[in-house]
Amino acid sequence: MMHIIMPGLQTLVQDSGRDGYYALGMPPAGALDQRSYTLGNMLVGNDPRAAGLEFAFMGPAIQFQSDTVIAVTGAEVTVLIDGEPQPMWASVPVKNGQTLSFGPMTRGSRGYIAVRGGVDVPKLSGSRSTYQTVQFGGHMGRALKPGDVLPIGTQIHSDDGHGDRIRELDPKYLPSLDASADLAVVTGLCNYRFTPESVQLFFESDFTVSHEANRTGYRLIGPALEFVERDVPFGAGSDPSNVVNLGYPLGSIQIPSGNEPICLLRDAVTGGGYVTFGTIISTDLDALAQLKTPDTVTFTSVSVTEAHAKRRHAHNELAQIAKSLKYPWVFGVERKETA
Amino acid sequence: MTDMYRQLSGGGGGRLSFGGDEFIFVELSEEMRIQQALTIQTLARTLTAMNLPGVTDVCPSHASYMIRYIPERVNLPELLATLQGVHEEIVTGRPATINTRIVDVPVYYNDPWTREALMKFRDRHQDPGSTDIEYAARVNGFESIDELIAAHTRHPFLVTFMNFVPGNAESVQLVPRELQIEVPKYKSPRTETPSRAVGHGGAFTNIYPSAGAGGVQLLGRTPINVVDMTQTRADFRERPVLFPAGTLISFRAISEAEYFDIRAAVDADEYRVRVADIEFSVGKHLEDWETYNDELLEALR
Questions:
Q1: How far is CA A209 from CA A115, A199, A218, A250, B265, in A?
Q2: Shortest Cα–Cα distance, A304 to chain B (Å)
Q3: B163, A271: Cβ pair inside 8 Å?
Q4: Which residues does chain B have within 8 Å of residue A269's beta carbon, measured at their own beta carbons?
Q5: Residue A120 within any structural domain of the chain
Q6: pLDDT tens readout for residues A208-245
Q7: Contact A112/A5 with Cβ under 8 angstroms?
Q8: Which domain, by its residues, includes B262?
Q9: ipTM of the prediction
């Protein structure tokens, strides 16, 4: 059992997400920085889809009511057990009665706590992730509160014979957590609505992360973009940035009125009536999720072939890490087909 | 960026592009057309039924559709070839038949809860002196809100897109464009909408599954639930939402007393939504929509 003494600013049960419900209007939810979340599970020998905790900016204080092993990954933060500093990116044994707490977060914005066995909340529609918008999944569909008690499960990797070994990530695999990120974008969707000059301007500009940056999306501040003239299509709405409501891919960038692009993350609405410019590739969403106001973002245009090459590169690196940690990684098990 | 779009041939349009590394997006045109929406529903049903390996989601929308796939489990050129084949076949093929359901939705139009909510946001409205339903009636040339209600309940709607939050279904009335009720959205969205509010924006009616923000004109409120993601209530055992895309909705005006009766029965999980299985023939709709709508409504009698 994990007893929540202090919840931090916003601590949520998250996992690899709830795939296959886009057509019903439900986004996947799940850990925003999937790479850090996955590495946490590797470090404690969990199933790669085991549920952990995601905390934003300020970590929780948690008393453990059994002996276990944890790992903290993601944003750079001081990890304390009964007040003693502990390493991040490593498995750390915790004894019954000990308390995990956190010092200030120095870089990045989201931390992850993996606990051996995973957080045992009910699995709803194939996932334990919290989708706060409709209070669904996770622990009672909401962020943790003082006094909450979370059971620890048995979501241990079935082929992991090294569960009790101390694992530590080679520092060369640490995320950059820089205050600026260059993100790869596949253009398409409603990109034709923008003038060629505006498309060029988008890729040449620095954008600043605004205060509106949360699990549903990141609103960025940058130059105003212009639209191509048109006759308003039936059903679209009169603003040049309005379109007949359409689907928003995870990671897509919508630009209401041509100002302040919004990058849609894992709790975003699945569709709507604003023009979409293109889509940030999935492996670059991890870096975006570690930014905060007033960090900066630039974008680089890539083809879908390049996007898939980058994805393969990221997966190959995870496979290398798994090997170095003696973790029985099975390629692709982190996603489930549900359609 | 020159190869950002691929044009699918076969008439009827189809502009394909990639949504990052996991999504394929196909837009048939930039405008809403009923026949095109029916084609998209047929396409989505066909693609879903094919159970394509590595494809996790097939999402039809009003004038476009979207597919999500796992790149590691898909041969992309093969998937694109399959998609192109199905797309062209259905876009150029004979009008299809859609196996679906028609659902009876009782609505308390001009109800006190949506009125209370909307009165808080008159400063965000085009016409602060009217309520939403009065405004919707007037801009559509109806003499009274009763005329608007009569038009809204006269012909069934087709759900063409689920989005926003789980269970929210945007639907279009199965009537020619000149008869469709059309009304602008709020100038700036409300931060508050009662759950189960029935709204209309552009040419689309939706029912807000839960309380929250919203930008369309509020016409009334239904006593029935439209979503149960935990699937514990009787009407939701087979599917977590009442109106998946392709479902027909028939709105029915009810009184305040009926609203309270139905709501009490819903709360006790004793109310059963009136539903009929139907085969929707796109061809019959195109031939004589008016007679065919009456035939479809008969299924609920």
A1: 31, 19, 7, 18, 49
A2: 6
A3: yes
A4: 163-165
A5: yes
A6: 999 999 999 999 999 999 999 999 999 888 889 999 99
A7: no
A8: 99-298
A9: 0.96
